[in-house]
């Protein structure tokens, strides 16, 4: 349930639109060594260069695990509002507010940090895809009891994190990097700053269907993800849109069995701008709930980030100055969702 104060519904209203359908390339992670894997690596690199968005097949994540996690989350979101708020410390529950700068959405969510001890709820009210480094580091599982839902989401996170590492290994091969683990190790280390976010977009409210009220609402406003990559799965309800290279929006075809991968800001930096951090949003346009689970693969807080030397090109010019992931996160906490977080770090 999302409760908006008077006037807040108007803030997230969108004009009616019917964007074209996005052509989403597929990359097969199970391709065997040899020509097939080389072709998959080339396809992955091409997708990252074009729109920074693709779907993966042959990923190895059990379908029954994904469906069970999604179903358990849907049951939680169906609870009475008071019970969800009471359970918030155990599962990182929040609603409508995205970040601390005034962004709103027709959304409620769960937010869990990934630590060596397991999934840790991020319970501060300011949480978004980019919680402040200090707040995230201060989360602790010692003060919040585990729950069956959290345990299932933790199992799901382990499987998707493994898949994210496989994506980054194939990506390193396609880029011709010296080590296959050059990118994967950034999200696979014990101190890597990874997160799982489960978003629930309830059906659009009845008030939005008549009387001149908007038929479309902002579920999650336009933004790029700050991490290296994000891996998303949804229940097959429409609403996700990506911005194409020319800036126009395109609707991602709903697919309840697919895993989609976003290029994040940090990967754009590591590739010196060769890969494109994809701008995306969720529009609430359906009478059916949308549930999506997103794994955000981030590096350790102290990791120093800059374009990889192998990807600087003949001129050797770096488009971005070196910074730590903690520095980037803290900078991003002060911005609105739609703002360009990378511009302060450009040379």
Shape: globular
What is the strand tally? Answer: 16
Q: In percent, how much strand structure appears in the residues?
A: 15-25%
In helices, the fraction of residues equals: 25-40%
- What is the CA-CA span between the terminal residues? 44 Å
Mean pLDDT equals 89
Computed structural class = alpha+beta
Spans of at least 5 consecutive residues whose pLDDT stays below 50 are: 133-145
Pfam family, one: DIOX_N
Domain Fe2OG dioxygenase: 191-299
InterPro entries: DIOX_N, IPNS-like_FE2OG_OXY, IPNS-like_sf, Iron_ascorbate_oxido_reductase, Oxoglu/Fe-dep_dioxygenase_dom
Protein name: Fe2OG dioxygenase domain-containing protein
Present the secondary structure layout.
Elements: H1 8-11, E1 13-14, E2 26-28, H2 35-50, E3 53-57, H3 63-77, H4 81-91, E4 93-98, E5 103-115, E6 118-121, H5 133-138, H6 148-175, H7 184-188, E7 194-201, E8 216-223, E9 229-234, E10 240-243, E11 249-251, E12 259-263, H8 265-270, E13 280-284, E14 290-297, E15 304-305, E16 323-324, H9 325-332
Parallel strand pairs: 2-3
Antiparallel strand pairs: 1-8, 3-12, 4-5, 5-6, 5-7, 7-14, 8-13, 9-12, 9-14, 10-11, 10-13, 15-16
Helix pairs in contact: 2-6, 3-6
């Amino acid at each position: 349930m999302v409760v908006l104060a008077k006037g807040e519904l108007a803030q997230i209203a969108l004009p009616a639109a019917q964007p074209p359908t996005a052509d989403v390339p597929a990359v097969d992670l199970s391709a065997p060594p040899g020509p097939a894997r080389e072709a998959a690596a080339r396809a992955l690199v091409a997708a990252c260069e074009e729109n920074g968005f693709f779907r993966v097949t042959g990923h190895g994540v059990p379908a029954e695990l994904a469906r069970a996690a999604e179903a358990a989350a849907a049951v939680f979101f169906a609870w009475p509002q008071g019970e969800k708020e009471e359970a918030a410390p155990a599962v990182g529950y929040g609603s409508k507010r995205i970040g601390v700068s005034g962004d709103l959405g027709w959304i409620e969510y769960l937010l869990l940090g990934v630590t060596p001890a397991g999934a840790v709820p991020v319970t501060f009210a300011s949480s978004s895809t980019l919680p402040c480094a200090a707040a995230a580091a201060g989360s602790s599982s010692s003060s919040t009891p585990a729950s069956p839902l959290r345990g299932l989401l933790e199992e799901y996170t382990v499987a998707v994190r493994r898949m994210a590492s496989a994506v980054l290994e194939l990506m390193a091969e396609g880029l011709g990097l010296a080590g296959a683990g050059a990118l994967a190790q950034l999200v696979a280390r014990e101190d890597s700053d990874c997160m799982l976010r489960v978003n629930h977009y309830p059906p659009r409210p009845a008030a939005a269907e008549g009387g001149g009220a908007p038929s479309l609402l902002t579920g999650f406003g336009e933004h790029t993800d700050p991490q290296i990559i994000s891996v998303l799965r949804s229940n097959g309800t429409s609403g996700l849109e990506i911005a194409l290279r020319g800036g126009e929006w395109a609707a991602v075809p709903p697919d309840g069995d697919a895993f989609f991968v976003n290029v994040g800001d940090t990967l754009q930096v590591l590739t010196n701008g060769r890969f494109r951090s994809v701008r995306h949003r969720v529009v609430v346009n359906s009478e059916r709930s949308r549930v999506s689970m997103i794994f955000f693969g981030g590096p350790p807080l102290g990791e120093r980030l800059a374009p990889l030397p192998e990807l600087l090109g003949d001129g050797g010019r770096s488009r971005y100055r070196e910074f730590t992931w903690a520095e980037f996160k803290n900078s991003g906490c002060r911005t609105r969702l739609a703002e360009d977080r990378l511009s302060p770090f450009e040379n």
